[in-house]
Write a structure and sequence with these properties.
The chain has 123 residues and is an all-alpha fold. 67% of the residues lie in helices and 0% in strands. The chain contains 6 helices and no strands.
Length: 123
């Protein structure tokens, strides 16, 4: 839990990756947590699911996260763009780590068809 990325930023990554990986359980859980624990607005949650944010720094994080996920890590140009947007090497490494954790939980829950025990959010 010690991270240079805020809890909000980590949650935005989780939302974007859960949407990208079509994980109903993770998307539902993260949408619930984003709203109730972090007090993100419905608009912020919807934007994160699309990989967008009105905040330029969050937008750079989400763009990198989705590129890492979709390109399975082969995202050199996207890393360069993240650096150009002001992300540090440590932040970039933490984005990759958060994507990896999200992918693991998404795949685990998709494989096991985990019952959704939050209000359902469909990818």
């Amino acid at each position: 839990m010690r991270s240079t990325l805020s809890a909000k930023t980590r949650e935005l990554i989780s939302l974007a990756v859960a949407q990208s990986d079509n994980c109903e359980y993770c998307l539902s859980a993260h949408a619930y947590g984003a709203e109730h624990a972090l007090h993100l607005s419905a608009e912020e949650i919807a934007a994160a699911r699309k990989g967008t944010s009105a905040n330029p720094r969050a937008q750079a994080v989400l763009a990198l996260a989705l590129a890492v996920n979709e390109k399975r890590g082969a995202a050199e140009d996207d890393v360069a763009a993240a650096r150009a947007a002001g992300l540090t090497d440590k932040e970039i490494a933490e984005v990759v780590a958060n994507v990896a954790l999200s992918v693991f939980t998404n795949f685990f829950n998709n494989t096991n068809a985990t019952d959704v025990d939050f209000p359902l959010v469909t990818p």
